[in-house]
Amino acid sequence: MTSPERLHVQNGTLFDGTGAPGRPADVVVEDGRIAAILPPMQRVHDARVIDASGAWIAPGFLDVHTHYDAEVELLPGLPESVRHGVTTVVMGSCGLSMAVGDPVDLADMFCRVEGIPRATVKPMLERVKTWDGPAAYFDHLASLPLGPNVAALLGHSAIRAASMGLERSLTSGVRPNELELARMDALLSEALDAGYLGLSINTLTWDKMDGDGDLRSRPTPSVFATWSEYRRLARQLRARGRILQGVPNVSTKVNVLLFFLESLGVMRPGLKTMLITMMDAKAARLPFRAAGLLASLVNRLLGADLRFQSLPNVFDLWVDGMEAPIFEEIGAGTAALHERDDETRARLLRDPAFRRRFRREWGSWLLGRAYHRDLDDTEIQECPGDRALVGKSIGQVARERGVDPIDALLDLVAEHGRALRWYTVIGNDRPEWLRWIVSHPAVLIGFSDAGAHLRNMAHYNFPLRLLRMAKDDRVMPIERAVHRLTGELATWLGIDAGRIAEKARADLVVIDPAGLTSDVDRIVEVEMPGFDGLSRLVRRNDRAVRSVVVGGREVVREGAPLDVLGRERSGSLLRAG
């Protein structure tokens, strides 16, 4: 590996990640660290100049919610995040982790939930997984030629399956015995000693198992745990000031109150709790406001330390046929996705009894919902078998055919399968309430799901979208937006990142504000190296990012990654504490 260069980032406006106003300054980088912060126009000998004229110099952005756990093995440079100025990513979200367990079990827990092809991940894990336990996994990550810095949570589903056996961990009513609980405790202790940020758990029943056997389509292991199991593990987190990341049941939304109670600090230290997610969902307009108010109260008055991960942009979704987690909200949707073969699935979708069940569950409010299920609020993007459908909503197709919208949806998927591609907006569609969310003190900016839902979502560039809001809509000062994307996140997570100061790690981004235009919303599809020709949905806005430096090495220049295949290490493994 080549040594980091001596760099002189020149003539920019410096936002240091503390929330301080921007100021004209130059930054000198040497040996992977910030060597000096100088007044503009200083001469620096033997340094390569990065021109920041008319641009902002900021710390590299943090992404607090990714699922890069598989992609980092195939493409450790993680260029799709780095190209947007993200220099630190957090893995191990939603109870999922590669830290411990059987490779096939890990692939089955991970792939269907996160929309990643099992045909790629399973053989990859069988090939590369040589570690056995959280500490050894961190040693493995540290050996990879990482593009950005990587921090991680330990996934509860992984340690539960490793301690109980996969089938027991996925069986309703079966509780771990004392030896199994002690094993989970020991794995968590090992992880915290190694520097994991904390533990991630999942209570969302519509995250389902992949695989070939009888366990396919059951919820992931963490969902089967009782709150006494979660609380036992949370004792270590509370005692050591580490993080509990939780996925509430976003359909019913009721058990979010249990996370609030667990975070309380009355007669005990508050538990750092990070929840997914505060969003102005079309299906339910009030819960995010109630959650924001309650979070403010418990944090201020009851010693809690609770945060919501949130995106600073419209939450939109693309679907190939029915390949999206929103259909797992209902049992009929899970039954359809259980069938992987298009012909078998089509026969099920045409079955009258199945249609009655689907219609009943789709329309029920008793089951709760995160997706609005308004088929007029869709747009068909692609349909090679019938191009006349492109641009129409599924509701419009139903009216033209004189059928119920549910029948139109099931007919279209049965006829065209995954070739039918359509679009919908889940939430964050009201600008005034989106501004409220991104300004809320209990919000941590970031919920990209980078590395997952490869055909469904494209939130990799969320930092640039917040900066555009700050620049154009004046939702907050630029220095506050930078702080929300950098120093605020790093401080709460407890890692060495997110600031520009002498001797600090040299992770920084040069942003051209003239590039923060509508281009940050533009969607493209690009092929993913190492994923057997799979195309990923992304947003590309190369004009906005002039340069990205990680660990003292320039890794992006004029919006383009310099090491797409990840042959040169620039990032480091970041350990809590």
TrEMBL record:
InterPro entries: Amidohydro_3, Metal-dep_hydrolase_composite, Metal_Hydrolase, Metallo-dep_Hydrolases_sf. Coiled coil: none annotated. One of its GO terms (molecular function) is hydrolase activity, acting on carbon-nitrogen (but not peptide) bonds, in cyclic amides. Transmembrane segments: none annotated. GO terms for cellular component: cytosol. Residues 1-20 are annotated as: Disordered. Pfam families: Amidohydro_3. Gene3D superfamilies: Metal-dependent hydrolases, Urease, subunit C, domain 1. Residues 392-556 form the Amidohydrolase domain. This is D-aminoacylase. It comes from Sandaracinus amylolyticus.
